[in-house]
Design a protein that fits this description.
Blueprint: E1 11-14, E2 23-28, H1 39-47, E3 50-55, H2 75-92, E4 98-103, H3 105-116, E5 121-127, H4 139-150, E6 155-157, H5 159-165, H6 170-178, E7 185-187, H7 188-194
Parallel strand pairs: 2-3, 2-4, 4-5
Antiparallel strand pairs: 1-3, 6-7
């Protein structure tokens, strides 16, 4: 749950109350991922006095699990959620700097938030920002793409992409594939929205 900041949005929060808080990191996940993937990094950052807040973008993570939530991918709504989250965090902690931390798709959204809220976002940390479109197809995916032309609502298996891009460490790749909150299918329309 989104705490007091956005109660209807699934948000993961890490904070070490034994250390004075000196800043806030809002972490935005990449395609197929969810906010909890920042757990290891967040635990380290809290030791240095950062509160870490990581929402699940709409259609990802916990948005997929409950009937009360909407499993559809909604990037414009996610962008609005992020802006509301930044506003709420700033109102609750007006003296703390707020940094956006984004990976891939999340980096692109972080840039958009920082651009819209330059007086509130103190800085950006971007990993693999999706700054230009890149098409990647494994040979077996060519058939999937062709079949999407006849059925745009058909679900595309994203596991081959996860295997290729999640990590060079096979253990991390396997953990990602087995993570029930990682989204492993998107339809053609959702993939087009992502681009």
């Amino acid at each position: 749950a989104g705490m007091d900041y956005l109660p209807d949005v699934p948000i993961s929060v890490w904070q070490d109350n034994a250390v004075p808080t000196r800043g806030i990191a809002v972490c935005v996940h990449g395609l197929v991922m969810h906010g909890r993937v920042y757990d290891s990094m967040a635990r380290e950052l809290t030791k240095d006095g950062l509160m870490v807040v990581a929402p699940d973008l709409r259609g990802y993570g916990r948005w997929q699990e409950a009937d009360t939530l909407d499993p559809r991918v909604r990037y414009e709504s996610s962008l609005s959620d992020l802006k509301e989250l930044i506003t709420s965090l700033h109102e609750a902690h007006p003296d703390l700097p707020i940094f956006m931390v984004g990976e891939s798709l999340g980096a692109g959204l972080s840039i958009r938030v920082a651009e819209a809220m330059p007086d509130t976002v103190s800085g950006l940390v971007l990993s693999s920002p999706a700054l230009k479109r890149r098409m990647y197809l494994e040979p077996e995916m060519v058939g999937q793409v062709a079949s999407l032309m006849t059925n745009p609502m058909r679900q595309v298996d994203l596991v081959p992409y996860i295997k290729k891009f999640a990590s060079e460490d096979p253990e991390i790749v396997q953990e990602t594939i087995q993570d029930p909150y990682v989204r492993k299918h998107l339809n053609c329309l959702e993939l087009m929205q992502t681009a």
